[in-house]
Amino acid sequence: MADGAGFVHRRLSIVDLEGGAQPIRSGDAALVANGEIYNDPALRARLTDARFATGSDCEPALHLWQREGYGYARELRGMYAIGLVRHGNGRHEMALSRDPFGIKPLYVARFEGGIAFASEPEALLAAGLGRREVRPEARDELLQLQFTTGRDTIYPGIRRVLPGETLHLADGALVERRRETALSVAEADEPLDEEEALARLDSALLDSVAVHQRADVPLGLFLSGGIDSAAVLGAMARLGIRRPMAWTARFDVPGAADETERARVMARSVEASHAVLTITREMVWRALPRIVACVDDPVADYAIIPTWFLAREAARDVKVVLSGEGGDELFAGYGRYRRVMRPWWRGGRAPYRQGALAGLGVLRPGRRRGWRDGIAAAELTAGAGASRLRAVQALDVEEWLPNDLLIKLDRCLMAHGVEGRTPLLDPAVAGVAWSLPDGMRVRDKSGKWLLRRWVERHVPGVEPFAHKQGFTVPVGEWIMAEGKRLGALVAEQPCIAQVAHPERVRALFCKASSGRARRAAWHLLFYALWYRVHIEQVAGEGDVFSVLSRRDG
CA-to-CA distance for 263 and 107, rounded, in angstroms? Predict the structure, then answer.
């Protein structure tokens, strides 16, 4: 490109397969983007004076920026990480923008005289930007919380662009930050009866799923036995999308959570083509190094396992998958939301108060306090002035959603060349969800009350108020089957010995089938493997045992 600025882009073609190559140029400006702009048709119709060079849904962002400046992103409806540059009068101006929910990742690193950005930290590290080390504060946070919070990543020198943020840069220097979060423009709760609320939700869901299913390539759905994916599937059926392809995961462990039958009922009710994938312990141990290799911004969420395998399976047939992420956060589905509404004498408590390794005697002294600093800082601002329920939901939308669930979804799907779309994380749906009074979120011990009522009405054969077994990946049982061997390998890793007592780590892995020990053992295993692959750069080839025991770097 122009002197002093350059773009590199690798494209997963979804819209305008032949003509949508990037960078896209207009006059002295250019754009690269990762994601989808769902209101592309409306923007094109409004930008009557623009000369469009492609059919790409991302091109309107370039013309909006040229016309409206750094507030351009508020016009966009979609998931995106965008880089824009303009060169004139001997000066470079740049904008970096990320969608309000943080569905698409965006990272920046400074270097002498400028700034670099990428969709993954690994790209910046490979370019010699940032340091292939870990910040102790982020490491402790990851081990206890399973994700890292805020702007700083685990790597010194690499930072996140926050969800909803636009950075204005000139000649490599930051001039201004603007931010409009997913909930900042949502309405407060208002007097609303059930029928009116259901009508608004119906309109928003159909509108969102309609725009999310636009693609020039085949499309499918991840289908659990839960309410969120049932709502997406039901909306697809209402829109006349015929025989969508759907995938469900199950596990080979007796007694493990199995949503297969509920998913089958949902699929049959709308005549979806349904496939069930059984994940075994042997599959996990063979693939885990590759799974961890795709999560360079670390997330010790064991749901990466089924997500990665489902993505691999779906990639044989489709390039776009819809998913139900966001339903719990927006409509109040988690048990922690119901707990926070109770008084303390009835077991009420706020979330994120106890770390995964707390009270197990595994950590060395001094590793027990600072892990809460990031989440505590977010608690001070998220949902300020709102009810206790809404404040905790806002905290999850601010931190848990973009830094855990959406990283997991993005990395696992993109590792297989599949784009993940989340129709529930849409301004239309969020506007309805956030306007609901607490009583339409949680009622009669049921979270997601209004969404359940919608599913009850519009998805035949589904019992949305029936008790649902939690979808828990049986990592404890898998670890226990190899507890002695795995515990020894994890305990001998220098990155683990630095923070934990090796002999206690070995003992922990031999009792990993119990609730707290299971989660703690998984976090330690994930971190040990992640450190090997991303910091020590041990090749992620071979099974988990060979990667942890290998001595090459």
Answer: 37
Using alpha carbons, select from 74, 80, 73 the residue that is nearest to residue 57.
Answer: 80
Neighbours of 199 (CB within 10 A): 13
Tell me, what's the pLDDT at 52? Answer: 86
DSSP symbol at 162: P
Over 60: is that where the pLDDT of 189 sits? Answer: no
Residues present in the chain in total: 553
For the cut 70, the answer to whether the pLDDT of residue 98 exceeds it is yes
For residues 11 and 56, what is the distance between their CA atoms, to the nearest angstrom? 12
Q: Are residues 274 and 332 in the same domain?
A: yes
In a domain, 374, yes or no: no
Q: Would you say residue 348 has pLDDT above 80?
A: no
Residue 370 pLDDT level (bands cut at 50, 70, 90):
confident
Q: Say yes or no: 158 and 207 in one domain.
A: no
Per mean pLDDT, which range of 40-54, 134-148, 183-197 is the poorest?
183-197
Instruction: Quote the mean pLDDT of the chain.
Output: 89
Residue 242 structure tokens = 């015929």
Q: How confident is the model at residue 490 (pLDDT cuts 50, 70, 90)?
A: very high
Between CA 395 and CA 401, with CA 398 as vertex, the angle to 5 degrees is 100
Q: Per the domain annotation, does 381 fall within a domain?
A: no
Question: With the CA atoms of 379, 383, 386 and 387 taken in that order, what torsion angle do they form, in degrees rounded to the nearest 10?
Answer: -60
Q: What is the mean pLDDT of residues 431-448?
A: 92
CATH number, position 241:
3.40.50.620
Q: Please say whether the beta carbons of 19 and 54 come within 8 A.
A: yes
**Whether residue 341 sits in one domain with residue 300:** yes
Domain annotation covers residue 368? no
| The residue type at 452 | R
Count structural domains, the chain.
3
Domain-terminating residue out of 179, 209, 234: 179
**210 and 338 fall within a common domain:** yes
pLDDT tens for each residue of 193-223 = 899 999 999 999 999 999 999 877 778 999 9
Handedness of CA 434, 437, 438, 442 (dihedral sign): negative
The kind and range of the H/E element at 62 are: helix 59-68
Instruction: Supply the range of the domain harboring residue 419.
Output: 194-346+401-458
Q: Are residues 175 and 277 in the same domain?
A: no
Contact 280, 248 (CB under 8 A): no
Within a domain: 307: yes
Same domain, 274 and 172: no
Q: At 220, list the tokens.
A: 């499918």
User: Which one, of 357, 302, 354, 365, lies nearest residue 517 by Cα?
Assistant: 357
Which of 156, 179, 202 is at the close of a domain?
A: 179
Q: pLDDT digit string (tens) for 450-481?
A: 999 999 999 887 888 877 665 689 999 999 99
Co-location of 500 and 452 in the same domain:
no
Same domain (yes/no): 203, 339? yes
234 pLDDT higher than 60:
yes
Asked if 454 and 231 touch (Cβ cutoff 8 Å), the reply is: yes
Q: Measured between alpha carbons, how far is residue 212 from residues 39, 172, 396, 421, 424 in Å?
A: 10, 35, 23, 7, 10
